User: Fold this.
Amino acid sequence: MPYEPRVPRIRWIEAGLELLAAGGPGAVRVEAIAAALGVTKGGFYGFFANRAALLGEMLDEWERRSIDEVVDEVEASAGDVRERLRGAGLRTFSSSLLPVDLAVRAWARQDAAIAERLRRVDNARMGYLRGLYGSFVSDLDEIEARSTASFVLAIGWHFLGADHGNRTPGEAAGLAFDRLLLTGLDETKVVTASRIVDAPHEAIFELIADPARQPEWDGNANLAAAPRGQRVRTVGDVFTTVLSRGSVRQNHVVEFEEGRRMAWRPAEPGRNPPGHLWRWQLESLSDTRTLVTHTYNWTMLTDESRRERARTTDEAYLRRSLDRLAALASHSGS
Assistant:
C-alpha cells in the first residue's frame, strides 16, 4: 500500500471551509474533502467523530478568524482610530473571509442554530465598531447609526449592481466609509485600546463599576484607593477616588448601561469636570469571553494645565490597565 501522509486537523477544517464557501453546507462532504486533500477519508475519523463534529469545528474556526484574529491584528497595528476602523473592515471582509461569511449567512436562513452563531459573531463585530466609534463620538444614537451603517456597507456593497461612474463598487464603498470616519474625528485627542478577555462580561463589569476595585487593575499607579460602597448604578452617580499623590477626585458618571458600558468625567471636589472622559465598553462573545474596549477622550478638555498630561496618555497607557483588568478578571473566574 502506498504511503499516505497524515493531514493535520486544521487542513480538514480549512478544506471544509473552502467547500462551504464554494457550495454551501451541502457541499461539505467527507469524501469531497478527502479528494481535495488527496487522501482517503479514513484519516478524517482520526480527528472527527462525524460530519456534524467537523461542521462545528469549521464554525469555531470561522468565528476565531472573524473575531479574535481581526481584533488582535487591528489592535497590534498601533494605528489611529480611523486606521483601525478601516483595518477592521478590510480584515473582516477580506478575500479569504468574505466567501465563508456570505455562505454562513445563507446557511443561517435555513438553520436556527447557525443563525444564533451568526448573531453572536455579528454582535461581537458591532461591539468592536461601537467601541471604536465611541472613542470620538459622544452621542449614543450617533454611535449606533455609524456602526450599523459601516457594517451594512461592508456587507451590502458586494451585492450592488449599480454603476458608480468612473469608480468601481469597492471605490464607491470606500468613499462612503470615509464619510462616516471623517465627521467629528479629532484623532489627536482620542485614544482607545481593545482586547478579548477570557471572563464573563458580568464579572469584568463588576470590577469596573465598583470603584473600590479600580486600584487593583489600574496599570499606571495612578489610583491609590476608593471608599467601599460606591457601586455605580446609573448616569448621574458620583464616586470618589484617591490618587497616588494624595489628591481626591469626584468622578461624574455620564454614560451607564449595566454590564456593557460605563464612562465618567473626573473633577476636583466641588468643581465642574474639566472635560476629559474615561470609558469602558464590554461586548459578550460567549459565557466566558468578552470583548473589552477602553477609551480616553480629552476632546472637550478646557483646562490648559492638564493638556500636557492628556497628550501623554497613549494606547500603551490604556493597554496596561486593560491587561491588568484581564488578568484580574480571568483569575477571579478560575
User: Anything to note?
Assistant: The chain has a mean pLDDT of 89. Residues 188 and 267 are 22 Å apart (CA to CA). The chain has two domains: 9-133+137-182, 188-333. The radius of gyration is 23 Å.
